[in-house]
TrEMBL record:
Gene3D superfamilies given in the database record: Luciferase-like domain
Top-level taxon in the UniProt lineage: Bacteria
GO MF annotation, one: oxidoreductase activity, acting on paired donors, with incorporation or reduction of molecular oxygen
Sequence ranges assigned to domain Luciferase-like in this UniProt record: 17-302
Gene Ontology CC: one annotated term: cytosol
Listed Pfam families: Bac_luciferase
InterPro entries (alphabetical): Bact_Lucif_Oxidored (IPR050766), LLM_Atu2307-like (IPR022290), Luciferase-like_dom (IPR011251), Luciferase-like_sf (IPR036661)
Keywords: Monooxygenase, Oxidoreductase
Protein name: LLM class flavin-dependent oxidoreductase
Length: 348
């Protein structure tokens, strides 16, 4: 199993002063985080995509290119590129360029996006939410196959053999399908033979097993090689010296982020009780000591029948700079070795 971290490059308000973090300082801390992740042997770093005042990740490929220049081994990917609101040609060019800069370490996770501010920003209608994604994914995969194609669609000008360059260093640029809880999305990933990245930010891991099984059945029904199947999980997580230290460092940013999200989407405010449950043995947060987190990773692997990649979204603790650094260090030097020693990730 590969272990990594995802960042949304969020700006948070200091609870003591109410002041918003400096954008320039936060960007530097993001790059320092991926540099440290590389140094401690983590496998992958993902950058999110949001188009809002309190986030710095509207151009993830640019941030990842800066990270590529400061790292040597870690793979660099979008956490989820909002493909429905993007131009597949431009997205491929950006990540092919990243692949050249990083000497073959680029990947893309594409999805429809749970945050929808990109749609009106780039002139797309939310009523076309799924149609946009299906068409643009088709184009992106065709471009990956060869640089010159004939293509027509509803939402983008046609292609008549114009070349899409540069080409990546890797023979095939890895493209994962990022999904939430929509069964059709799991089936689509399996049918197309794409690796699956499941965002699990609440509830329990058990409720996603039927969806993952849909993916596996669709994969086999489409006659893709069973050994090439890959299931990844993106989850909220944070590692501390103790369970208490991890929870205390992670809670303030989590509370702020989900309070803001609830205000926008009509959810009730989050509570301490919800947080404590999610951090407990039956919840979906990977927050705690190295031993607690490693045990929970083993539980995820068993529950979902084998997980190939697990990425931690820990940037809600960005105000705690030293705690963030220590969390990344513990993840790389304590948690990842346990996972590797147990040879997790083999699919049933």
């Amino acid at each position: 199993m590969e272990i990594g971290i995802d960042s949304f490059a969020m700006l948070l308000n200091d609870p003591a002063t109410g002041r918003l973090q400096s954008a320039i300082d936060r960007m530097e801390s993001v790059l320092a985080e991926v540099e440290l992740a590389d140094q401690v042997g983590l496998d992958v770093f993902g950058m999110g995509e949001h188009h809002r005042e309190n986030a710095l990740d509207s151009a993830p490929a640019v941030i990842l290119a800066a990270a590529a220049a400061r790292t040597k081994s870690i793979r660099l990917t979008s956490a989820v590129a909002v493909l429905s609101a993007a131009d597949p040609v431009r997205l491929f060019q950006e990540f092919a360029t990243l692949d050249l800069i990083s000497r073959g370490r680029a990947e893309i996770v594409v999805g429809r996006g749970s945050s929808v501010e990109a749609y009106p920003l780039f002139g797309f209608d939310l009523r076309d939410y799924d149609a946009l994604f299906a068409e643009k994914l088709d184009l992106l995969l065709k471009i990956r196959e060869k640089p010159r194609i004939e293509w027509q669609g509803r939402f983008r000008p046609s292609l008549s053999g114009e070349g899409v360059f540069p080409r990546p260093h890797q023979p095939t640029l890895p493209i994962w399908l990022g999904v939430g809880g929509t069964p059709e999305s799991f089936i689509r990933a399996g049918t197309l033979g794409l690796p699956l990245m499941v965002a699990i930010i609440g509830g329990s891991f058990e409720r996603f097993l039927p969806l993952v099984e849909l993916y596996r059945r669709a994969w086999l029904a489409a006659d893709h090689p069973s050994e090439e199947q890959r299931v990844g999980v993106h989850a909220l997580g944070f590692v501390g010296e103790t369970d208490k230290a991890a929870r205390e460092a992670f809670f303030p940013g989590w509370f702020q982020m989900f309070t803001d999200a609830g205000r926008e989407r009509g959810w009730p405010p989050p509570t301490q009780a919800q947080f404590d449950f999610m951090c407990g043995p039956n919840g979906a947060f990977l927050v705690g000591s190295p031993q607690t987190v490693a045990a929970k990773i083993e539980h995820i692997n068993r529950t979902l029948g084998g997980v190939s990649r697990l990425t931690f979204q820990m940037s809600t603790a960005a105000l705690e700079t030293e705690a963030m650094r220590r969390s990344i260090e513990l993840l790389g030097t304590h948690v990842a070795p346990i996972v590797r020693a147990h040879r997790l990730g083999r699919s049933r």
